[in-house]
């Protein structure tokens, strides 16, 4: 049997053929790197991707001039430094815009607020009590609140809370926590004994504590070599976890890293909550380094199910010792560990998390 198509049907058929695009083949080489800009003008001590698909970058202000000037001949107040120590990178336009940051943000902390604003707190010297707010737009710049913090915050940790505020925990010689924004003008800071207990004289090892929001609304706080579950509303430790095997420090200046592993939901409930802590340094490494002896970084990782009735650490060994590494959760649930020291340049580690069998893990070294 022969079919006859009207003239317009022929045209529609051929139009559909022309518009059809077969699926893109998988990249055989796994992608490639390309240089977008030779320089953004400053060092990226801190960097944050914003909801606007722009990236704000900032660096300390007391280490000399940068390689990018402030616009319109501006200079920092009471200074001959007319260079920028913060920039915004526009991904779509592949361009950089200089920003004015007034106070020193060296080893500060911060997090994104629910409305997309970056709230950045503390730092060194004139910046230790400062709250800085950055709203991303074509003409936006840093806004600074000189006395936004109750206590100095240098090497503190910030975490967003369910009510939209952020909690700011610790910092050098700050054994307390506070919130931003404050609920009232009289609200101040709150003492946290755990930070005293984990502080080592002349070494500390409890700076930049690891903080994760648990599914019960409490905070998991890890400092030095152990962690607690903390009710920040009642200022009460509700659970104390066992020390990580070996008892070596994992926080700054020993500087390991940590992530909250992906949550598995079964029948509407979270099945378990597990934290992974990797790298760090031997207990006496800081003192030894000051005397010219440099210890090898730790090559161990510990996993702790903080949701278990009787949680115990499960330890694994990385193929490379690592300190000051970065850990990133990937969309497929893997954990990427990159950067750091005491590891050959250019290498990275992929940690494949098997949550069905907690004791299993695969370390893959990729060149």
Automatic annotation (TrEMBL):
<dbReference type="InterPro" id="IPR037293">
    <property type="entry name" value="Gal_Oxidase_central_sf"/>
</dbReference>
<dbReference type="Pfam" id="PF07250">
    <property type="entry name" value="Glyoxal_oxid_N"/>
</dbReference>
<dbReference type="InterPro" id="IPR011043">
    <property type="entry name" value="Gal_Oxase/kelch_b-propeller"/>
</dbReference>
<feature type="signal peptide">
    <location>
        <begin position="1"/>
        <end position="26"/>
    </location>
</feature>
<keyword id="KW-0732">Signal</keyword>
<feature type="domain" description="Glyoxal oxidase N-terminal">
    <location>
        <begin position="45"/>
        <end position="342"/>
    </location>
</feature>
<protein>
    <recommendedName>
        <fullName>Glyoxal oxidase N-terminal domain-containing protein</fullName>
    </recommendedName>
</protein>
<dbReference type="InterPro" id="IPR009880">
    <property type="entry name" value="Glyoxal_oxidase_N"/>
</dbReference>
């Amino acid at each position: 049997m022969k079919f006859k198509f009207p003239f317009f049907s022929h045209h529609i058929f051929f139009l559909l053929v022309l518009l059809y695009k077969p699926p893109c083949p998988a990249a055989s080489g796994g992608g490639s790197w390309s240089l977008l800009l030779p320089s953004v003008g400053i060092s990226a001590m801190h960097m944050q991707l914003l909801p606007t698909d722009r990236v704000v970058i900032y660096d300390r202000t007391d280490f000399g001039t940068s390689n990018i000037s402030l616009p319109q001949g501006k200079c920092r107040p009471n200074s001959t430094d007319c260079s920028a120590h913060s920039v915004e990178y526009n991904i779509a336009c592949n361009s950089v815009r200089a920003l004015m940051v007034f106070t020193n943000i060296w080893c500060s902390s911060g997090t994104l607020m629910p409305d997309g604003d970056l709230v950045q707190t503390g730092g060194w010297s004139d910046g230790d009590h400062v709250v800085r707010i950055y709203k991303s737009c074509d003409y936006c710049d840093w806004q600074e609140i000189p006395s936004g913090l109750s206590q100095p915050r240098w090497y503190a940790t910030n975490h967003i809370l369910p009510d939209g505020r952020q909690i700011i925990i610790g910092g050098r010689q700050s054994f307390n926590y506070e919130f931003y924004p404050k609920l009232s003008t009289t609200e101040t800071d709150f003492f946290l004994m755990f930070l005293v207990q984990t502080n080592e004289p002349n070494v500390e090892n409890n700076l930049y504590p690891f903080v994760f929001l648990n599914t019960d609304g409490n905070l998991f706080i890890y400092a030095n070599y152990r962690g607690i579950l903390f009710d920040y509303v009642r200022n009460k430790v509700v659970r104390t976890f066992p020390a990580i095997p070996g008892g070596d420090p994992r926080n700054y200046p020993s500087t390991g890293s940590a992530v909250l592993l992906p949550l598995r939901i079964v029948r509407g409930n979270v099945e378990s909550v597990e934290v992974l802590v990797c790298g760090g340094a031997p207990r006496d490494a800081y003192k030894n380094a000051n005397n010219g002896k440099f210890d090898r970084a730790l090559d161990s990782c510990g996993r702790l199910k903080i949701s278990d009735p009787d949680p115990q650490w499960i330890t694994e060994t990385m193929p490379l010792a690592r300190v000051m590494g970065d850990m990133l959760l990937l969309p497929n649930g893997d954990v990427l560990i990159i950067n750091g020291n005491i590891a050959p340049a250019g290498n990275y580690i992929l940690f494949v998390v098997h949550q069905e069998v907690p004791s299993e893990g695969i370390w893959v070294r990729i060149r």
